[in-house]
Amino acid sequence: MAENLTIERSRVQLTKEDFVSDQMVKWCPGCGAHAILSAVANVFPKIGYRKENFCVISGIGCSSRFPYYVNTYGFHGIHGRAAAISSGVKIANPHLSVWMATGDGDSMAIGGNHFIHTIRRNIDINILLFNNQIYGLTKGQYSPTTPMGSITKTSPQGTIEHPFNPGELVMGAQGTFFARIVDNNVKMMTDVMFEAAKHDGTSIMEVLQNCVIYADKAHEQITSKDLRDDHQLHLKNGEPMVFGKNREKGIRLTDSGLEVVKIGENGITEKDLLVHDQYSQDPGIHLMLAKMNPPNFPVALGVIRSAMFPTYDDMVEEQITYAKANSKIKNMDDLLNSGDTWEIK
Amino acid sequence: MTKKNNVVEKETIVIKFVGDSGDGMQLTGTLFSDAAAIAGNDLATFPDFPAEVRAPQNTVAGVSGFQVHFGKVKIKTSGDLCDVIVAMNPASLKANLKWAKPAATIIVDADAFEDKAIEKAGYTSNPLKDGSLKKINLIDAPLTTLARESLKDSGMDIKSMDKSKNMVALGIVNYLFNRDLDTTFKLFDKKFKKKPTLAEANKKALQAGYNYADTIEAIKTTYVVPAAKLEKGRYRNITGNVAVAWGLIAAAEKSGRQLFLGSYPITPATEILMELAIHKSLGVKVFQAEDEIAGICSAIGASFSGALAATTTSGPGLSLKSEALGLAVITELPLVVVNVQRGGPSTGLPTKSEQSDLMQALFGRNGEAPLIVIAASSPSDCFYSAYEAAKLSMEHMTPAILLTEGALGLGSELLRIPKMSDMPAIKPPVVAANDKEYQPYKRDDKTLARKWALPGTEGLRHRIGGLEKENISGSVSMNPANHQLMTDLREAKVEKIADFIPKQEIIGDKKGDLLVVGWGSTFGVINMAVQELQTEGVKVSQTHFHYISPFPKNTEELLSKFKKILVCELNAGQLVNYFRMKFPKNTYTQFNKVQGLPFVVSEIKEKIIQTLKEK
Fold first, then answer.
1. Is pLDDT at A109 greater than 60 in this prediction?
2. What is the pTM of this model?
3. Whether ipTM exceeds 0.85
4. Which terminus of chain A is less hemmed in, N or C, by CB atoms within 10 Å?
5. Across the A/B interface, how many CB contacts are shorter than 8 Å?
């Protein structure tokens, strides 16, 4: 890295209260967004930067009211454009810790272009993608992540569109960090957010969020008490992939891809299981993990990918530092008088 | 050297180099204009090329041109009709003959007038032989043959030799204007520093053209255009697009803000993006975005972060930026949007010039969304206009649209190099840390601008965004009375800028029968028409608008002093209709042209005379 771009740390220990804004939170009671807000307020003091160095940016939708509810510098943008606005904020001032709140409509539909290009550039932005599989603020139309066949206000006979899996999009766009979390596990959310803050580059955190009004229980297969142990795989770097109520199941890599195995059956032990390597540069296994879905597989949660690649914002600074050191043009007067000029006397 | 028969002094000359888009006409024209500038002439240039990179050979559609207007007097336009045309093939001759003055000199490559090329150009007979060019002073030189002969010992292949035919033509032109070849030689050395063999080849071809002209009898008269009496100082030639880029860098330096450009390539504005990408040594951050929307949105983000933020585009791009412009209006952040206008609507005429985005700049957003609109009037004025747009935008905390035009962006003229210490100060209202008085929408009494509180600053955490905010506190507010107040304040803030800009000026009498009005690139051509008529004793005055939103304070009064107001625009009548809306008491006549071409002096003069005659 060209310059020490570490974000200035707070000299005092901050608390959750430092980040609570005076605005009334206007999300519906029971909305998963409350838990995300709580996790953010938990993690910001833990990250330890000066409170003035946090900047929260959003687009449009329920998720995007987020900046008003966190006491940081904040910017509520326009529909789909949060990633572009965040890019400008971070490039102009790399000493800020930039967080972005967005939804499946905001970033998968109208802002899809900015989403993939921001990821491709690997700009150091932490993106919380609230995926509730529905347009909430406009009151219940299907989104690009709504499962096929779902009945919504704009699909009375069921949707006829193939949904996006955000993880696949992230890998396809050469993402360097992808994590998936559920809104009813604040502890895991906080841990993942902390990891995202540590990661240099674009960090995508897909939050499987429940919309109580328009898509209640959309993630029920994953989050319900009865099913979650069998349908959630909690990834931990360097550890074998084990899940199940009694931690009796695991994920094994075979020639034909991933498979679910039972520990103890057919002589399978934990040693046969796939060990999670979130730092692997190659996204192959990360993609397979991101694509796993019930009923045949559990859903992978936690940090799926966290690979180190140069960031756009660092390289901008590097090029400027190099140019400043090597160019004869040091100021505007130099530039105006450079090249072909002549004197009229 | 043989004695020249007849040397005539000329005040100004318009010369146009035309050929296939691969014939090197832009280079030839640039070399000629650089040499003219070094010889002390004032000048303006205008490139004219097809939208395609390499359009079909030998077709009228594929003709590329470069026009130079130079002289011993102040040059205000790139010229209407040409004194000299250099045409490299039949198609370029066919496309440009209409721009020749009655007694023009036309230099053609006789070798290029083969049957096939003649037919492809749409001629039924060879124009060099069928007598159709009788009135023209025709120099049909075998440029290709001369190039090959001059380079026969160079070891180059035929194709490479043929590429030097444009330099043979330039040699003839140099002879015609009694120009010293040394200046061009030096330009070759500089341009082809890393390819000395190419520099030598071009020198030989140039010399061959010069010698040829010296020996043939077709050139009975040669010309001299003495140096212009320009204001003392250091000069350079600059295109409008480069001037915009430099104006922005200058404003960033003066204001102490970093310059951020978020932009997307689009003809004819791309050169601004390319130019700014070069100047990283001045701390310029350039973000080539994935689309026009990301261009402006990244700039808005950078502005929130505290940079002087800009986005550059042309008409269709401005359409895409409309929603985000509204965001910059409501968040009351500085932002410079440069629109290098081209022919529209839609993709329209990408490489041609027009003034048809004025209404879009003024009103092209949802809601009541006023902002600054400034128009540049010449390539060098683009420097000062960009600087001023940045200054007003930052000091008044509101976005500004700078309108330039394809003809300004790609055209060039001389810029008298300013000293940065002489440029006006720029003082953005940046808030100091821990300012206890700070509130996001608390306003300055004089400007009504809110303050700029930069993320990272201690004690100023706040939230802004696209939802309407309560005045002063900046909390989200759906209160009807507050929305009325904020709408009025945003309007009043822009109107207040009129207190900080110069009054509108008139060239000629301050009252009378006819005032000719223009804005943007048409200044030079209208001015020439008006001055010629004034010299002929016609009572006519001119005023040219630089500030369109807000108008200078005295605008209404100034207009009211004339019986008739003739508004000339390269659109269907946008400023005139804005006048009719803002100042309905006056009587307006309009003169419009939407052909992707500039006005010519003669048509403005005719319209003025006609307007004066009408009752």
1. yes
2. 0.96
3. yes
4. C
5. 200
